[in-house]
Amino acid sequence: LEVELASIKEDRAWADLAVGNVARALEFLDALYGQVTEPARRIRIARRLVRAHFWNGQPGEGLRWADRALGDAGGEAPARAQLNLLRGLCLEQLGRAEEAGTAFLAVLEAGKELESDGLQARAHQALALLSLWTGDAGGVHHHAERANELSTSCGADRVEFWSLWVRATFFGLTGEVDQALNLIEQAQSVATRLGSPHLQLWAAEILIEHSAATGAWDRGLTIGGHSIALADNLGYRAVLPRLLVWTGFVHIARGDLERAERLMDRAWEMSVEGADAEGADVHAYVPAHTGRAALLLARGEYDEAVDVGVRGLEAADATGYFIWGVHRLLPTLAEAHI
To answer: Each residue of 11-32: pLDDT tens digit?
Structure first.
């Protein structure tokens, strides 16, 4: 009976994780890990704990669980490859790009040895994302295209979403907004088909930025408000700080600094003051600095804007994540210096 109950709880936690209810999934998984003794199940639960902490904006904690699970996995090649992929994703969030790249390439090789299209697709997906952050345009397109090709052959729909998301983000950052919109709308359709609210939130992030870039402020605020409420309802922190910041930028554009301040302050509290003790999520930490610097600039507090902006730029530079320096942060600093 205890084994059956544990199995039901694990299924419940996985269902919660699948629909984006990360906080509740963590409660079940943490309790289950200490109750289960079978090695294969402990590894599976630990893998889900890594994923849950990653989505909860706690990559340092996710990395700790990945290392723990790798110790349990022994020589099991498929299990080790899947754990190394998750471990690499946590390293990437922590700004440890070189270590993440090494992990992803090892997973790619393991996928070839195991003749697993799904594993290779996920490795290419992860390498495409890493290439995006480091500003490697060739890597973005190569790995995203390979991920998409392999996902088609093995039915990995989430890989299809991420290959679209990465390319949409790249085109948005390089000013090709029509191309970006086309790709992110395709990604949004995939997220809808999968019934995944957390993928919808990642698509919403790009749609908010597209709205800001094209002056569709009402649309941006509508998407931002709905997405922030959904992320709060699910306890889903991975993308929430950026949703707050990008929506705050739209309020700044409209001259509503009071509402912008509430959103920027909340992003700062989550991503800077409330950063994971094991290490800050760079993809929240730097945008939080960008948002605060922009708000200070809008108020005419130029010296303070420069101070905050420089700290954000230093964090981006330390990781090699070129994209977070050039996206909004450098233009904000340049304007503050004028």
So the answer is: 777 677 766 677 778 877 887 8
Q: Give the sign of the dihedral formed by CA 192, CA 196, CA 197, CA 201.
A: negative
Is the distance from CB of 321 to CB of 282 less than 8 angstroms? Answer: yes
Mean pLDDT across the chain: 90
The tokens describing 269, both together, are 């509290």
Residue pLDDT, tens place only, 95-137: 999 999 999 999 999 999 999 999 999 999 999 999 999 999 9
pLDDT greater than 50 at residue 327: yes
Q: What is the pTM of this model?
A: 0.91
Do residues 128 and 163 lie in contact, with contact meaning Cβ atoms separated by under 8 Å?
A: yes
pLDDT reported for residue 1? 45
Interatomic CA distance for residues 95 and 76, integer angstroms: 28
277: pLDDT strictly greater than 60? no
CB 123 within 8 A of CB 99: no
Res 210 pLDDT > 70: yes
Whether 87 contacts 49, CB under 8 Å:
no
By C-alpha distance, which of 243, 265, 196 is closest to 22?
196
Dist. CA 11–CA 21, nearest whole Å: 13
How much is the pLDDT for 74? Answer: 77
